[in-house]
Design a protein that fits this description.
This protein has one domain: Rossmann fold. Helix content is 40%, strand content 19%. A five-stranded parallel β-sheet has the order 2-1-3-4-5, with helices on both faces. The longest helix is centred in the last third of the chain and has 14 residues. The radius of gyration is 13 Å and the shape is globular. 44% of the residues are buried.
């Protein structure tokens, strides 16, 4: 059985990137659910999601900007593959998010995509490849 993909956005301002992921996953006929859960504002909700994520999800795409803690926090709380997408927000236009996602400590892997729209689409393409749907 192929599990679903969870798309987790750090905030509503990431909707456009979540839409890009959803569009590509839909083309591959991959089931997905979308959530808005902030690593900073909703830590208990995120921890609860991570505890039960393995029951239905095979991959998590985490979209976050600025400090971009979301992908790393998720990866620290589950063994499900996490694909991080740096959002192109803030004065540094996503460079800060890219570095935060890419510089994870050993043992807490996160696949890091490029900044913004193309990164969001590539996250969904990578998820499809991991699930052998391409």
């Amino acid at each position: 059985m192929i599990k679903k993909v969870a798309i987790i956005q750090g905030s509503k301002s990431d909707d456009n990137l979540g839409d890009n992921c959803a569009e590509v996953l839909s083309k591959y006929n991959i089931s997905f659910d979308r959530f808005i859960i902030s690593a900073h504002r909703d830590p208990e909700e995120l921890a609860q999601f991570c505890k039960s994520a393995g029951d239905g999800y095979g991959i998590i795409i985490a979209i976050a900007g600025l400090s971009a803690a979301l992908p790393g926090v998720i990866a620290s709380q589950t063994t499900i593959p996490v694909i991080g997408v740096p959002a192109d927000h803030g004065p540094l236009k996503g460079i800060d998010a890219l570095l935060a996602i890419a510089q994870m400590p050993s043992g807490i892997p996160v696949a890091c995509m490029g900044i913004g729209r193309s990164g969001a689409k590539n996250a969904a393409h990578l998820a499809a490849r991991i699930l052998n749907k391409t």
